[in-house]
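A protein record in our archive is deliberately plain, so that people and models can read it alike. The record that follows is passed on verbatim for readers who wish to inspect the format.
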Amino acid sequence: MRLTKLHYTRAIVPSLLLTFYLPLAQSWLLPEATQRETWLQIWQYFPVTLSLAQFGMSKIWKDTADQDKIERPKRDVATLRYTMGVPAGVATMFWLYTLYASPVSSSRVFLPHDSTTILSSLRSTSAFTLAHDLLQYNYTIAILSTYLWLLYFVWDAKVAGMVTQSWLTVLAAVALATVVLGPGGAVGAGFLWREYIITEKRHKGALTSEKVRKEAGEGIGKGKK
């Protein structure tokens, strides 16, 4: 049940580059404020445009799910790792660049500090100021909810015997990754680790070939006794 449809998976990265990263980069790099605001408005529709782009680009490749689930059930693993690694790498580069180039602290860049900021922005004439304030709240909520989702996975995986690391180790790794890679890079690394767990590990109650051989050997040993 872990196998994804490879033609959809292959379409994720080019769709992200087209509908997420390109408009976002334009909203930052263009010299005119009106141009940046236009591209920022285009970027805000990426949940819709990304879905449409992924659906359209998936038609480039053939759907091989029926063959893969029998012959190559791990065929999509390399594509999944690439798909998660590219955005994580981009997010890390943006994080490091921001730390290096920003004239203010990273907390001022990413975290909202004044609950009245949005109300004051609504009274102003700058749509860009309002968008910036909203993005700070959106970014914080999205990252925290994603961290929570990953912690839910760790909880489930620990119950299933698929994760043996302690909670202290997991939380320390999350904190270290956030500082070094940034929140986006840390989330990407977390998803890569999650994919490794569900691909390579098995539930403690799963019937695997290794467990069958072990139980068969123990049964033979008891029979001899």
Q: What stands out?
A: The radius of gyration is 23 Å. DSSP finds eleven helices and no strands in the chain. The chain has a mean pLDDT of 83. Residues 81 and 223 are 46 Å apart (CA to CA).
